[in-house]
Specification:
By secondary structure, this protein is α+β, with helices and mostly antiparallel strands. It has a domain of 233 residues: FAD/NAD(P)-binding domain, CATH 3.50.50.60. 38% of the residues lie in helices and 29% in strands. It is built from 13 helices and 20 strands. Strands 6-5-14-15-16-13-17-20 form an 8-stranded mixed β-sheet, with helices on both faces. It has a 6-stranded mixed β-sheet with strand order 8-2-1-12-19-18. Helix 1 packs parallel to helix 10. The longest helix has 28 residues. It binds 8-demethyl-8-dimethylamino-flavin-adenine-dinucleotide and P-hydroxybenzoic acid (PHB).
Length: 395
């Protein structure tokens, strides 16, 4: 088998890259370890920057987000028992974010790919990448008891944090930067109306962080900070709702509609960046190269901005016969990534209870939160990062 670009991973990065390349007439095959149902069953991100929404339209899959996405003009911070809106729309000259789940983005991209006829191999095992330092890279994998080889011109490593592409790079050729946080997020999805349908709520409370988000007007997504030693089985629905209410202001807590959870999981919080993002004819994009803690809602959006840069670079290579895009990809992508890493790390530090925090640390958090909501300059830095820094902000 032969293709121009072999894409490893059918998460949002791989599917979106595939859609943009297919549209530009560049042959591509996606190789995915899991089944389609497994990929769609993962409940993850929910907030899209405008650049991500624009990219979905550019890829021809914008109908879902246009019809079902919920546009948000502001976010709210809760601390010391009170809600404080930050009007991101006004502070950024009219920019917004859209609530539309990663599950829905993936579903739309999968349907478009099937209609386009570009090949996707699901449930592939023993996926391995070879010879990406040469002009003739290869991907090998097993499927239904048979071994297969895919010859290609480029490999796109869109295979997430635990993928095979980054892991195949010799240690001396890659540098990794990491911070692991001493807590996780317990997330619950429920078919209940969101307590705050027009804004995501971020709460700093004595009992720890909490977040109120949504997937639609009838489906909510909530999170509470929890120790990483906790197990999902420790958390009955009742315990979760009580804990969430105890971290919100009394008005919001009294309006919260509870119901049975339809998904419940604990996610670790990590900051991670691998440099560079290009190794000969293999590129990394999305979670394969970097992880942010979800506090700033940047993970999926960063994956999309990598894909925008990588697809342009590959189109430039195949259509305009220019190397410039692929040569500049890693530096350009990393410049934007580090700014989102900074914002996610900072918001995580500001909003969570750290096990080793003392009274001083807590007072500093409160002082910073008060400053944030009272100073237009400080609110503006939150707003412009939350909606996503412009692409030309990067180097
Ligand atoms: P993904 O979505 O992890 O997709 C990678 C795909 O590659 C496949 N794969 C392989 N395929 C072939 N061979 C191999 N050897 C392979 N190894 C892996 C995997 O099965 C998978 O299908 O990465 P991608 O596409 O870069 O997309 C990135 C986003 O998924 C990610 O940034 C966000 O979901 C991060 N994230 C969140 N971001 C937010 O903005 N808000 C959130 O609330 C939020 N919650 C989360 C999250 C990430 C989580 N993970 C990764 C554990 C919650 C969780 C639990
Ligand atoms: C979500 O809806 O899952 C979500 C929203 C905002 C965040 C993180 C997660 O910052």
């Amino acid at each position: 088998m032969k293709t121009q670009v072999a894409i490893i991973g059918a998460g949002p990065s791989g599917l979106l890259l595939g859609a943009l390349l297919t549209k530009a007439g560049i042959a591509n095959t996606i190789i995915e370890r899991q089944t389609p149902d497994y990929v769609l069953g993962r409940i993850r991100a929910g907030i899209l920057e405008q650049t991500t929404v624009d990219l979905l339209h550019e890829a021809g899959v914008g109908h879902g987000v246009s019809n079902e996405g919920l546009v948000h003009h502001h976010i709210e911070l809760i601390f010391k028992g009170e809600r404080h809106p930050i009007d991101v729309h006004a502070l950024t000259g009219g920019k917004v974010v859209t609530a539309y789940g990663q599950t829905e983005v993936t579903r739309d991209l999968m349907a478009a790919r099937e209609a386009s006829g570009s090949p996707t191999v699901y449930a592939a095992s023993n996926v391995a990448v070879h010879d990406y330092d040469s002009a003739t890279p290869r991907v090998t994998y097993d499927k239904d008891g048979q071994s297969h080889t895919l010859d290609c011109e480029f490999i796109a490593g869109c295979d997430g944090f635990h993928g095979v592409c980054r892991a195949s790079v010799p240690q001396g050729a890659i540098k990794e930067f990491e911070r692991v946080y001493p807590f996780g997020w317990l997330g619950v999805l429920s078919d209940t109306p969101p307590v705050s349908p027009h804004a995501i709520l971020y709460a700093n409370s004595e009992r720890g962080f909490a977040l109120c988000s949504m997937r639609s007007m009838t489906r909510s997504r909530y999170y509470v900070q929890c120790p990483m030693t906790d197990k999902v089985e420790d958390w009955s629905d009742e315990r979760f709702w009580n804990e969430l209410k105890s971290r919100l202001d009394t008005d919001t807590a009294s309006r919260l509609v509870t119901g049975p959870s339809i998904e419940k999981s604990i996610a670790p919080l990590r900051s991670f960046v691998a440099e560079p993002m290009r190794f000969g004819r293999m590129f990394l994009a999305g979670d394969a190269a970097h992880i942010v803690p979800p506090t700033g809602a940047k993970g999926l959006n960063l994956a999309a901005s990598d894909v925008k840069m990588l697809s342009s670079a590959l189109i430039e290579f195949f259509v305009e016969k220019s190397q410039a895009g692929i040569d500049g990809y890693s530096e350009r992508a990393l410049s934007r990534i580090w700014k989102a890493e900074r914002f996610s790390w900072w918001l995580t530090s500001l909003m969570h209870r750290f096990p080793d925090a003392d009274g001083f640390g807590q007072k500093i958090q409160e002082a910073e939160l008060e400053y944030l909501v009272r100073s237009r300059a400080a609110s503006t830095t939150v707003a412009e990062n939350y909606v996503g820094l412009p692409f030309d902000f990067a180097a």
